[in-house]
């Protein structure tokens, strides 16, 4: 188990999401989080969009980590969305994105929250783990891959 294990549940893994744009992907994720967190979807969307306006959260290799600091949120929350069709995301390598790990943290995020973001980035930039996540079709196995992954030190 790692720092990510408390953030992901099987219901936070969405492997057949349909979105034709970055905006639509954000809207779908915000609907999920709104239900889970009891925070209005449009509030969540405004925070995520504000962060994305600073620069793309696309890492390259078909993956992205949209994230934002959310006013009123008490604990970090995350979800995985694997899109059926890759979308343009403004990633540094110019490749479309099909795997997104959304991370929401409290507005006054601490160093621990930044470390969560760093671990997710390490997970997604590791070729073996990234390929496993992109190819896995079972939400429980995706959760296990994330929660059991250990960064190379």
Q: Based on the structure given, which CATH architecture is correct?
A: 3-Layer(aba) Sandwich
Mean pLDDT: 92
Assigned CATH class: Alpha Beta
Uncertain residue ranges? none
Total tally of structural domains = 1
Could you spell the SSE succession in H and E letters? EHHEEEEEHHH
Our measurement of the CA-to-CA distance between the termini, rounded to an integer number of angstroms, reads: 16 Å
Helical coverage, percent range: 40-55%
Taking Cα atoms only, what radius of gyration do you get, to the nearest Å? 14 Å
In terms of DSSP E residues, the strand content is 15-25%
Number of helices: 5
* The CATH topology: Mannitol-specific EII, Chain A
Count of DSSP strands: 6
- Main beta sheet: 6 strands, mixed
Query: What global shape is seen?
Result: globular
CATH superfamily: Mannitol-specific EII, Chain A
Estimated structural class: alpha/beta
Strand-helix topology:
Blueprint: E1 13-17, H1 22-37, H2 41-54, E2 58-60, E3 63-64, E4 67-70, E5 77-87, E6 97-106, H3 111-125, H4 127-135, H5 139-148
Parallel strand pairs: 1-5, 3-6, 4-6
Antiparallel strand pairs: 2-3, 5-6
Write a structural description.
This protein is an alpha/beta fold and 153 residues long. It has one domain: 3-Layer(aba) Sandwich (Mannitol-specific EII, Chain A). It has five helices and six strands; from the N terminus they run E-H-H-E-E-E-E-E-H-H-H. Strands 1, 2, 3, 4, 5 and 6 form a six-stranded mixed β-sheet that branches. Helix 1 (22-37) crosses helix 2 (41-54). The longest helix has 16 residues, at 22-37. The mean pLDDT is 92.
């Amino acid at each position: 188990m790692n720092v990510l294990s408390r953030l992901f549940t099987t219901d936070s893994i969405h492997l057949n999401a349909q979105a034709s744009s970055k905006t639509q992907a954000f809207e779908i994720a915000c609907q999920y989080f709104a239900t889970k967190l009891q925070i209005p979807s449009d509030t969540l969307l405004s925070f995520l969009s504000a962060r994305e306006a600073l620069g793309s959260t696309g890492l390259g290799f078909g993956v992205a980590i949209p994230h934002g600091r959310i006013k009123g949120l008490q604990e970090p929350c995350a979800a995985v969305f694997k899109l059926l069709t890759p979308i343009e995301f403004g990633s540094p390598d110019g490749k479309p994105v099909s795997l997104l790990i959304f991370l929401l943290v409290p507005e006054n995020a601490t160093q621990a929250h930044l470390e969560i973001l760093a671990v997710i980035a390490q997970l997604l930039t590791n070729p073996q783990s990234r390929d496993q996540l992109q190819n896995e079709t079972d939400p429980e196995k995706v959760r296990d891959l994330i929660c059991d992954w250990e960064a190379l030190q």
